[in-house]
């Protein structure tokens, strides 16, 4: 059995924005943890909002010269 990912690892991956670039198996473990863990789900929601806001800003501004 694969060891479960812990809260520390989850927040590290989320804060590094790794959840979109890491292997599918790793992401599945992270998603599974988020389903079970309220605290990490909250953290994930915060980062989701942040990333969406950043993308929004990036879209409205001209690209850097
Ligand atoms: Zn957790």
Description:
By secondary structure, the protein is mainly alpha-helical. The protein has helices at 7-15, 24-36, 38-60. Helix 1 (7-15) packs parallel to helix 3 (38-60). The radius of gyration is 14 Å and the shape is elongated. The model has no long low-confidence stretch (mean pLDDT 84).
Span between termini: 50 Å
The rounded Rg comes to 14 Å
Unreliable segments (pLDDT under 50, ≥5 consecutive)?
none
Distinct small molecules bound, one entry per kind? zinc ion
What is the tally of beta strands? 0
**What order do the helices and strands follow?**
HHH
Number of helical regions:
3
Structural class: mainly alpha
The share of residues in extended strands comes to: under 5%
How many strands, which pairing sense, and closed or not: the largest β-sheet?
Answer: none
Number of domains: 1
Mean pLDDT: 84
Overall outline? elongated
Helix content class: 55-70%
Topology of this structure?
Blueprint: H1 7-15, H2 24-36, H3 38-60
Helix pairs in contact: 1-3, 2-3
Bound molecules: zinc ion.
Question: Nutshell version of this structure?
Answer:
The chain is mainly alpha-helical and 65 residues long. 69% of the residues lie in helices and 0% in strands.
Keywords summarizing the entry:
single chain, mainly alpha, binds zinc ion, 3 helices, 65 residues
């Amino acid at each position: 059995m694969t060891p479960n990912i812990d809260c520390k690892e989850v927040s590290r991956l989320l804060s590094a924005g790794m959840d979109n670039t890491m292997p599918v198996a790793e992401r599945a473990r992270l998603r599974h943890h988020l389903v079970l863990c309220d605290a990490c789900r909250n953290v994930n929601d915060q980062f989701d909002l942040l990333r969406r806001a950043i993308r929004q800003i990036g879209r409205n501004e001209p690209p850097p010269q």
